[in-house]
Amino acid sequence: MGAVATIIDKVNPHSMEQRESNQYWEVFETKVRSLTERQQRIIAYKFCLLAEKDLDDLGKGALRLVEQLTSGHVSLQDCESYREQLQNRLPDEETSAYSPLIWALTPHTAAYPAWYSAAIVGLNIVDLGISTFPELTDLTKGILDNF
What DSSP element (H or E) covers 61? Predict the structure, then answer.
């Protein structure tokens, strides 16, 4: 399988990207999903840290709020206020350094559970070119090892 996958990847580089994306999602669906909300938010925060150098003052304030979410000492109103401010400053149809923060500040609901929001934070990091799926998969596994 390995040699065949390598040949397919050379012919169609999108198949390699799809396989890497699938591995990323598999970790989230099989391991991250069963964690506590706090642990899931820690993963989202660690991903957001990867974009820290690209943040302005509003973004850095939101990042501090995301960090506070990992300990549960944040009001929903504060999160909603920052999310609205970040959303209002998003460029049209583009991912920006605000995008991971918006997802990290998303309330845990049945429609958007914290594990899913954390996974989307990672997708935004990949879209921004800050990291790759294999790097985020490895980072996630490293975080999981510390829980």
Answer: helix 57-69
Mean pLDDT value across residues 44-54: 96
Q: How many domains does the chain have?
A: 1
Which of 137, 132, 141 is CA-nearest to residue 17? Answer: 132
48 is in which domain, residue-wise? 2-145
Those residues whose C-beta lies under 8 Å from the C-beta of residue 65, and which sit 6 or more positions away, are 74, 78, 79, 82, 105
Write down the mean pLDDT value for the chain. Answer: 88
Residues 134, 66: Cα–Cα separation, whole Å:
24
Instruction: Provide the whole-model pTM.
Output: 0.85
Residue 103: both structure tokens together: 């997802």
Q: How confident is the model at residue 10 (pLDDT cuts 50, 70, 90)?
A: low
Residue 51 token pair? 């974009």
